[in-house]
Amino acid sequence: MSGPDAAASDRPAPVHHTVQVPATSANLGAGFDAFGLALDLHLAVRTADRGAADARVTSRGLGADVLPTGDDNLVWRAFTDTCGALGVAVPDVRLEVHNRIPLERGLGSSSAAIVAGVVLARAVTGTPVGERRLVELAAEMEGHPDNVAPAILGGLVAGARGDDGFVVRRINPLPGHVALALVPPSAQATDASRATLPDTLDREAAVDQVARAGHVLMGLAGAWTVDPTLVGDRLHEPVRTPDLADGGALLAAVRADGLTAWLSGSGPVLVVLVPEDDATAIGRVRERATAAGSDTLVLALDRLGALACPDAGCALSGVGGCVQCPRERL
Question: What domains are defined for the chain?
Fold first, then answer.
């Protein structure tokens, strides 16, 4: 017997894998639901044999005290949904999770969980399927590709819904820069935040939105220098920033310093892009963030995306000791 309903005795022993998935920042200003950037902050998940008394999921790190440990866990749901979509049996495994991505802050924690499940399903079952299909599956679960696509592919990604599904393009982002993620103590639920968005934009605002999106995308790709005054958008930031704890004062102050900054996803995290060797700018942003009660994470731009490696194996170098080994993140 084969397929999702195959008896457990018919299933081959799973080859356990560990996956690492990067955090992501979506929108990047005016690219609402379209642009995303992968960041060097990771969720790591490993599959393991499951005994009768074992919980489906064990968690460490951020959110470990609130994340579900049963079949309703988001990583597990994505894992099983992907197995179903690929037409393969769901391996009876458990998941060991170590999360470093802040929850409900706008850094793609839920997208990372979905991507972890999707990528692990392919790896553990040995199903031959390409990244494009993985992006489609994850985007269908998430609703849009702006977080899941860079989480899978790494780098800078632009996505849109074409006539035949999602169309995603990836490029390496601007070299020599780091992202400063300014993380406040309070969370912000994405669903509640999306409910405040306007249904329409007038023509002038729509034209301005398109112009800003094109300018920022090409700037982050390295085609030209981003003008910080063009990073803000006309759709989501005007209604979301007033709901921030400081009413958007920190974002306004950072932009007034001439830095490229945006509300990450639905917020409340702000992301500031600065040259990695500009200690003065980094220090100034840290000072402003501390005064506003936010922590500052200095993150490299992730160009690798999701990486799954088998136990005692390596998906990149083929030998032990790889500097990118996801098992090191557990």
Answer: 12-171+303-329 (3.30.230.10), 177-300 (3.30.70.890)
Largest Cα separation within the chain, whole Å, is 64
Q: Which residue has the higher pLDDT, 272 or 199?
A: 272
> Which residues does 300 contact at the CB level (< 8 Å), separation at least 6?
39, 40, 178, 179, 276
pTM of the model: 0.92
Q: Is 212 exposed, middle or buried (0-12, 13-18, 19+ CB in 10 A)?
A: buried
Q: What does each C-alpha distance from 213 to 30, 34, 38, 155, 304 come to in angstroms?
A: 5, 9, 18, 17, 24
Q: What is the pLDDT of residues 235-264, one digit of tens each?
A: 999 999 998 999 999 999 999 999 999 999
Cα three-residue angle 246-249-252, rounded to 5 degrees: 150
Phi-psi region of 223 (alpha: psi -120 to 50; beta: other; left: phi over 0): alpha
